[in-house]
Amino acid sequence: xxxxxxxxxxxxxxxxxxxxxxxxxxxxxxxxxxxxxxxxxxxxxxxxxxxxxxxxxxxxxxxxxxxxxxxxxxxxxxxxxxxxxxxxxxxxxxxxxxxxxxxxxxxxxxxxxxxxxxxxxxxxxxxxxxxxxxxxxxxxxxxxxxxxxxxxxxxxxxxxxxxxxxxxxxxxxxxxxx
Length: 178
Known about the structure:
Layout: E1 5-8, H1 14-29, H2 35-44, H3 50-55, E2 58-63, E3 66-74, E4 100-107, H4 116-130, E5 135-141, H5 145-150, E6 154-162, E7 168-177
Parallel strand pairs: 4-5
Antiparallel strand pairs: 1-2, 2-3, 3-4, 5-7, 6-7
Helix pairs in contact: 1-2
């Protein structure tokens, strides 16, 4: 049996990505977030950002069972969130003065801590560097923070992101040089 395979995402992957995201958040977020925070974040924050797929900066990882991970990077200003939270405008960043964005990482709970996230992160960092970016920035979920720290990201701000239903959810803004 062959191992996991990384490739750029296409629009045809959207149904599988839409299925993976809530499964990942529910399966991996329970130790850090309340059930109410998880469900609110799935509804209001977490979801595919189709612009990443259109820009050719979003990856998926598949194996014999199907899609087991996804994530990518962006040359645009948005730091986090799916299509449901973005404004119509998402201007391009200047790679000489602004950091690339590492975005929308989700891994199947049964494949967590098996190198899937690291595979996507390494590919994203290489692609951002090849596009001329000098630094990368992200907003990590609490369960995702150890992955990014293991790859050299440093916490620069702890955020309590407000959700439309009055709840908040903690995230960590992180950064590293490429």
